[in-house]
Amino acid sequence: MKSYEMVIGLEVHVELATETKIFCGCTTKFGGEPNTHCCPVCTGMPGTLPVLNKKVVEFAIATGLALNCKINQNCKFDRKNYFYPDLPKAYQVSQLYLPLCHHGGIEIQVNGAKKIIGIHEIHMEEDAGKLIHDSWEDCTLVDYNRCGVPLIEIVSEPDMRSAEEVIAYLDKLKLILQYLGVSDCKMQEGSLRADINLSVREAGAKEFGTRTEMKNMNSFKAIARAIEGERKRQIELLEEGKAVIQETRRWDDNKDTSFAMRSKEDAQDYRYFPEPDLVPIEISDEWIDEINNRQPELRDEKMLRYETEYDIPAYDAGIITSSKRMADIFEKTVAICKKPKEVSNWLMVETMRLLKESEMEPEDIGFSPNNLARLIGLVQDNKINRTVAKEVFEIIFKDNIEPEAYVKEHGLMMVNDEGELRSVVEKVIAANQTSVADYRGGKDKALGYLVGQTMKEMKGKADPGMVNRILKEILTKD
Amino acid sequence: MNITDETIEYVAALAKLELSSEEKEKAKKDLGSILSYIDTMNELNTDNIEPMSHVFPIKNVFREDIVTNESNRDTLLSNAPKQKDGCFIVPKTIE
């Protein structure tokens, strides 16, 4: 078989984290009873007029600046016309001729190799409503709560050559958007959606092959699978001497395959024209400067600062900053307890483990920095030992409880009473004479067993250091 | 400017209109004269003239990002020919 190369470009739709919709004062909250986040403007009632949400323009400019784009300082909206009930006006307000941002790029890294992925443009538009199929009455129900939620569409250049590069690009993009605070990027709620334009060509060929567009992937894993599936499908066609048809395909993650939605032959003619209901936007240098000066610290800067300011290893800084939520919790907790390495350990080890076990994303972390700081304080002050702390942390992770109260209520305070510990140790020694003999015979390991037995007797509440000391003391004395 | 039957049928299909043969002829004539008018404008020299994208000389009309609307579902649905469970009912769409 010949060797092939993939060429991939992405169109990423991002719902902006504004309070209100792009052209009306309706809430953008996710969910809600159908059609309760709607008004005459976003349901397309005749005679209504849109008014642009200023925050949408600012979020889009902030994104453009972070993605190293040029800003179109004279910018306007256009109408994209099509009949589909998810858009009650029968057109979508979007930008075709003068998109807000263009000619940018971000650097990604795959297996140590750095590469720039170009950003062709970023434009603003409105989201559409949700269609629900009613199989009982064999009709379609429409909920317009999402209709008019502000979107930016980030169009990349066809610069990616593998699924790994696509995932690296999306990861980087998602982090930038989250750090900017312009979107929560929750794929399962549809606030970040990627369409993949993919073609294959013989390795070394200059011309692009015929591309297909794939939609409907709702996780990074599904995206990677969809890319692999489409690569195989296109190569098989070419190997059989058939042609790839330019079409839109819908990925079905359950069936692990894609289906043609519509082909180029019935491609829609959107008849774009300038939106007459909205006036042009003029963006002054001052406005851009103002937004630029407000830009928050992004991940790369944050990682460097963690290493120098908090003196934690680059590896730790990398993991903590891989999520905005995690980085926020880290900084707030450190501000309270002033123990960066401790906080970093709780986040990197226990938090990551619990997230994985409960199949949650770092964005879903619900415990407060304050409770984590208090837990660290309890360990620091020798009030509880690490084993108990881990148990308490699981409860904090789950229910965000106050550690002091919990420890008191469940009698988990460490026993530092020398007399009490000594009597338990003596009991353990009496009951485990074989291990005692082993230890005295030179088997150091036997001491570990005796410590374990003592901790068991103490229900994990003893100070292991103290148990060790008392054991050694008694064993060497007799 | 001459408009072909194919063009009229295509434009009508995009606009979801069904035209009788008389209406088609009339539309061909009307659209033809609109395009002729644009041809006339195309004769003008527009070098160094900034393109106009809006008829009013107004720019930057914005609103602040503050929720001002409450749920008004019953009124919004009141003109819908069909509704169910708080949703508009439309003919079945097939993806």
Which features would summarize this protein structure in a list?
heterodimer; A: 478 residues; alpha+beta; Arc Repressor Mutant, subunit A; 3 domains; 9-stranded mixed sheet; elongated; B: 95 residues; mainly alpha; two-stranded antiparallel sheet; 3 helices; 3 strands
Q: What are the SSEs and their pairings?
A:
The complex is a heterodimer of chains A (478) and B (95).
Chain A: E1 4-15, E2 52-53, H1 54-66, E3 70-71, E4 74-75, E5 78-81, E6 91-94, E7 101-110, E8 113-126, E9 130-134, E10 139-143, E11 150-156, H2 163-180, E12 192-202, E13 212-215, H3 220-239, E14 247-252, E15 257-263, E16 273-274, E17 281-282, H4 285-294, H5 299-309, H6 314-320, H7 324-337, H8 340-357, H9 369-380, H10 386-399, H11 403-409, H12 418-431, H13 433-440, H14 445-457, H15 464-477
Parallel strand pairs in A: 13-14
Antiparallel strand pairs in A: 1-11, 1-12, 3-7, 4-17, 5-6, 5-16, 7-8, 8-11, 9-10, 12-13, 14-15
Helix pairs in contact in A: 2-3, 6-8, 7-8, 7-9, 9-10, 12-14, 12-15, 13-14, 14-15
Chain B: H1 5-14, H2 21-42, E1 62-63, H3 73-77, E2 83-84, E3 87-90
Antiparallel strand pairs in B: 2-3
Structure write-up:
The complex is a heterodimer of chains A (478) and B (95). Chain A has 478 residues and is of the alpha+beta class. Chain A folds into 3 domains: 4-286, no CATH class; 306-409, no CATH class; 418-477, Orthogonal Bundle (Arc Repressor Mutant, subunit A). Helix content of chain A is 40%, strand content 21%. Chain A has helices spanning 54-66, 163-180, 220-239, 285-294, 299-309, 314-320, 324-337, 340-357, 369-380, 386-399, 403-409, 418-431, 433-440, 445-457, 464-477, and strands at residues 4-15, 52-53, 70-71, 74-75, 78-81, 91-94, 101-110, 113-126, 130-134, 139-143, 150-156, 192-202, 212-215, 247-252, 257-263, 273-274, 281-282. A 9-stranded mixed sheet of chain A has the order 3-7-8-11-1-12-13-14-15. Chain A has a 3-stranded antiparallel sheet with strand order 6-5-16, with no helix packed on it. The longest helix of chain A is centred in the middle third of the chain and has 20 residues, at 220-239. With 95 residues, chain B is mainly alpha-helical. Chain B has a domain at 5-42: Histone, subunit A, CATH 1.10.20. Helix content of chain B is 39%, strand content 8%. Chain B has helices at 5-14, 21-42, 73-77, and strands at 62-63, 83-84, 87-90. A two-stranded antiparallel ribbon of chain B has the order 2-3. Chain B is flat and about 55 Å long. Chain B starts with a helix and ends in a 5-residue tail after the last strand. In chain B, 3% of the residues are buried. The model of chain B has no long low-confidence stretch (mean pLDDT 91). The A-B interface holds A 18-20, 24-27, 33-40, 43, 45, 51-57, 76, 81, 83-85, 131-134, 137-144, 250, 261, 269, 271, 274, 276, 278-282 and B 14, 16, 53-56, 58-69, 71-73, 76-77, 82, 84-93, 95.
